[in-house]
């Protein structure tokens, strides 16, 4: 493969800006470049010295555009792509009215294939190069997404969603045994193949029986390099429902913990209304929680305590949660995280937002060092942002003073129009029509 040299502004992180002053964590080259060889980042540095040292490299000059690691969306539901922005419901009603009827359609592998391809093309158009998705209860739903990601060369995390309780509608229910067997087959087929990771996926404890949670805990114990993704304490009504279904549980996290579904490779989406014991346990085991800000405001769930949980030492990823989330864009997602941080009284810095959307999510998915990082050795998944992509952003950026004042308008107001290019494993991804 030829050596590629991408020229533009570059921004790399050398530490976690939630734990150290962000000024100590950022390396910025205003006239920078990224050298790519064999699908990986070889060097990030000054444009002139890279050009002098690598005269044979194929150059793509992005001018003053900002080169970042591709965004990592740590929690989403590709089967909900076609019901994004459905009006007027809160979590349980929203699931019953919009989500479950749509998820039934994934019994048809051709439908699953079409939506998987559409979702990944939308992700790439928005600068997202890795995502972690739920499937439906259909084995083929996971096959469809893994296949579509493989065809695009994308790093992907996904799993077949498991629901066997009568709280899920007939037609969208499996059994403890079929959930185990089909998940095991998918692990065999996909986990560690190319750029794929399998995530064992109980939807959430209200739609699983104890027997199913126990079976999936056993599956995880037998396949400890897999991730495990689920939902936790998203909405107050949901927590009350969980208490009715699991009267013996100490708290929501306990419904997972007591069945072997709490561990360092666990991903717990939302995690808004946590008890002190839950925070302690998540921190002790090194599990990750995933912040889904556009979903939290869209479904009316509540205000995630980003700064507080980061200070407590939790691993936190950032995610769209489409179609509960209202955007495929991680820029829009960062903007919503900023707005929620303001409502909680601590404005997060743009450096913290960009770190969360890249390295933070990659760490949550145990993919750090591979993706989410603009540094030597990382896989060359990149997004190139035009920092003046619309007239509204351009007029603000023209008055900006310094890097962050220039970048923040694109975080707050940008969308897919800000994405000049997306690179996947060292190749420029074609922009679908
Ligand atoms: N809790 C259980 N399932 C879902 C889902 O599909 N979306 C969201 N936002 N929360 C959930
Ligand atoms: Zn979700």
Automatic annotation (TrEMBL):
GO CC aspect terms: cytosol
Required cofactor names: Zn(2+)
Biochemical pathway: Purine metabolism; guanine degradation; xanthine from guanine: step 1/1
UniProt superkingdom: Bacteria
Domain Aminodeoxyfutalosine deaminase/Imidazolonepropionase-like composite: 32-57
Cofactor note (record): Binds 1 zinc ion per subunit.
UniProt GO BP: guanine catabolic process
Reaction catalysis annotation: guanine + H2O + H(+) = xanthine + NH4(+)
Residue ranges of every copy of the Amidohydrolase-related domain listed in the record: 67-427
Residues of the signal peptide: none
Family note: Belongs to the metallo-dependent hydrolases superfamily. ATZ/TRZ family.
Protein name per Swiss-Prot or TrEMBL: Guanine deaminase
Organism: Rubellimicrobium roseum
Gene, per the UniProt record: guaD
């Amino acid at each position: 493969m030829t050596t590629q040299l991408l020229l533009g502004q570059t921004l790399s992180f050398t530490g976690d800006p939630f734990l150290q002053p962000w000024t100590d964590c950022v390396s910025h080259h205003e006239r920078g470049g990224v050298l790519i060889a064999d699908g990986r980042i070889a060097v990030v540095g000054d444009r002139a010295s890279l050009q002098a040292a690598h005269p044979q490299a194929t150059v793509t000059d992005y001018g003053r555009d900002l080169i970042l690691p591709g965004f990592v969306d740590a929690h989403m539901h590709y089967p909900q792509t076609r019901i994004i922005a459905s009006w007027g419901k809160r979590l349980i009603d929203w699931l019953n009215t919009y989500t479950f009827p749509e998820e039934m359609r994934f019994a048809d592998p051709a439908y699953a294939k079409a939506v998987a391809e559409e979702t990944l093309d939308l992700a790439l158009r928005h600068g997202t190069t890795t995502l972690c998705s739920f499937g439906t209860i259909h084995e083929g739903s996971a096959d469809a997404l893994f296949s579509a990601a493989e065809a695009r060369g994308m790093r992907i995390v996904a799993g077949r969603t498991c629901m066997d309780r009568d709280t899920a509608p007939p037609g969208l229910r499996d059994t403890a045994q079929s959930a185990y067997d089909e998940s095991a087959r998918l692990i065999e087929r996909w986990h560690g193949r190319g750029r794929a990771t399998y995530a064992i996926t109980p939807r959430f404890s209200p739609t699983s029986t104890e027997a199913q949670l126990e079976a999936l805990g056993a599956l995880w114990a037998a396949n400890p390099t897999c991730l495990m993704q689920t939902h936790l304490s998203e909405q107050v009504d949901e927590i009350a429902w969980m208490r009715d279904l699991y009267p013996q549980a100490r708290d929501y996290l306990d419904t997972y913990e007591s069945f072997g579904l709490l561990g360092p490779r666990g991903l717990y989406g939302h995690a808004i209304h946590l008890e002190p014991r839950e925070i302690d346990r998540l921190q002790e085991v090194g599990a990750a929680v995933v912040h889904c800000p556009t979903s939290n405001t869209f479904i009316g769930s509540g205000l995630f305590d980003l700064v507080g949980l980061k200070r407590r030492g939790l691993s936190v990823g950032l995610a769209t949660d489409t179609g509960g989330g209202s955007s495929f864009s991680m820029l829009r997602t960062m903007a919503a995280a900023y707005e929620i941080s303001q409502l909680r009284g601590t404005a997060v810095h743009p450096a913290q937002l960009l770190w969360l959307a890249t390295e933070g999510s990659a760490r949550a998915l145990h993919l750090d060092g591979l993706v989410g990082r603009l540094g030597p050795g990382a896989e060359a998944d990149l997004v190139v942002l035009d920092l003046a992509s619309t007239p509204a952003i351009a007029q603000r950026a023209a008055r900006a003073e310094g890097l962050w004042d220039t970048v923040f308008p694109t975080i707050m107001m940008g969308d897919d129009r800000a994405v000049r290019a997306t690179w996947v494993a060292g190749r420029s991804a074609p922009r679908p029509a």
